[in-house]
Amino acid sequence: MLNFFKSNRIALLIFISSCSLYLAFAYDLERSHFIKLISLYGALFTFAYLFIEKLQLNFWLLACFGIIFRLLFLPAIPNLSQDFYRFLWDGRLLIQGINPYLFTPEFLLNDPGSLLQISVPQGNLLYQGMGVLNAGHYSNYPPVNQLFFAIAALFSGKSIVGSVVVLRLIMVLADIGILYFGRKVLLMLGLNTNKIFWYFLNPFIILELTGNLHFEGVMLFFVIWSFHLLLKGKWFWAAVLLGVSVSVKLIPLLLLPLFYQWFMSNTFKMTNLIRMTRLLKFYAVVLITIAITFTPFLSSEFVSNFTSTIALWFQNFEFNASVYYIIRWIGYQVVGWNIIATVGKILPLIVIAFVLSLTFFRRNTTIQQLITAMLLAMSFYFLLSTTVHPWYIATPLLLSVFTKYRFPIVWSLMVMLSYSAYGSDGFSEKIWLVAIEYITVIGFALYEVVYLEKRTNLVESI
Fold first, then answer.
1. pTM score
2. Which residues contact 51 (CB under 8 A, 6 or more apart)?
3. Is the dihedral of CA 170, 254, 205, 86 positive or negative?
4. 188 and 146 Cβ atoms separated by less than 8 Å
């Protein structure tokens, strides 16, 4: 034991320092204190870089560090996001048999004719916590996500802290699952298993997912498990898990076309007809799984409410965008007003066209090529999005672990600049900081794409 402390004294010192910074983040930080926030985060990111790239530590020691960092947040109320209040609201409705997609919190609490207003324990507190904007819209969280909200409500009674603890344990278990299956996938691809720590030890992941209770990690757990099963040839269960991931967060739907070349490749010793049949079966299982999870909630009102709420993210909301902000500025110069309602309908079509071009015109015949195509698709989608909350970057970050690209790691550092919008005087984005974020990320991405592709072509020619 004494030899362990001597040989790892620097690592343990950094570990203790990181613990103190995470505790400060969890229990002594307000979102409006941007200088403190970015200083703590910069220090934590530096420490993570030392752990992963410089200290050459044992895999399982790093895994223990990552788990302990997450457990430090266990009873902490999220301080950078208020979304969790809506999670608790939906969960408390669901365990009482009330469909959370049919009523807005505002309606249930403020409509004098509603008999349901007494159905939500601590309803006023949750309403105030989630904010007027969130409370005025229907829930847009898919059914498996709602299931986890219900579990938190079921096991915590009327305690907000208890519900937070349950949700946080779910997040921690999901991240441990990502560590487990991510390591297996890296081994199967012949890659360095310590690359998974750019996800598991990244302070961005610990703060945004475990700390702020965003469910990207749960969704990604099912995605990575699905990749692992695909590599083992178990396409049916891989499709089921991919369908479940969509029912946590809808974003994996964007990736479905990219499986085409992988299923149609010569890796499978069979005729093209059989390959196509298997691909169609894969898609069918994914879609049937999604349909099964949505079935308990289906109604015409659900479809209308859910789709209209999803559309709001493309046509009404703006935050931390890149290309869209340039388009918006051009719109002001040309027509004199914000053209988000129009652009919000066009940009998704451009994204779909880009994904289809990756599907049919880029080689995606190996699992690593497939994941790389997914990374490019996700990154392009977020670059054209009107709203890019920090936790969205978890998806390209994890995908990058299995590729040669590192620009999502840079993005996970720079995206925290977006919190400068939340000041003591209210919400006001600092466009110059948004510009610094995206100039850095896009510049690094272009360097990697040009340099790494050129190097790859040179090696292949030799």
1. 0.94
2. 11, 14, 57, 62, 65, 197, 201
3. negative
4. no
